[in-house]
């Protein structure tokens, strides 16, 4: 690895390239960053879809119930979904179908 000479026009040194190993390392780091970004986006999409479809509604209900009614017994999951479906049938205004 030879050090590059000073530029005659600006008088500032030219940075070393580091060779093929450094380029490979930079590309690997870029790949790792891109992979992490893809995983974050996928996790966000998964969260959005499960929230939209109501997949986490029972867990949300349990957390709310523990906070607001710590002494009361929560509904079973089956009872929760039955009540939720009955409520939607009685009040279909927020549904598309």
TrEMBL record:
Protein name: DUF466 domain-containing protein
Domain of life: Bacteria
Pfam family for this entry, one: Sel_put
Composition bias, Polar residues: 1-11
Region entry Disordered, spans: 1-26, 68-97
Basic and acidic residues biased stretches: 79-97
Organism: Microbacterium imperiale
Organism placement in taxonomy: Bacteria, Bacillati, Actinomycetota, Actinomycetes, Micrococcales
């Amino acid at each position: 690895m030879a050090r590059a000479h000073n530029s005659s026009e600006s008088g500032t040194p030219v940075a070393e390239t580091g060779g093929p190993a450094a380029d490979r390392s930079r590309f690997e780091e870029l790949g790792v960053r891109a992979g992490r970004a893809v995983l974050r986006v996928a996790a966000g999409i998964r969260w959005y879809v499960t929230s939209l479809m109501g997949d986490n509604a029972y867990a949300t209900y349990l957390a709310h119930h523990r906070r607001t009614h710590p002494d009361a017994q929560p509904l079973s999951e089956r009872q929760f979904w039955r009540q939720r479906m009955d409520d939607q049938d009685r009040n279909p205004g927020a549904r598309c179908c």
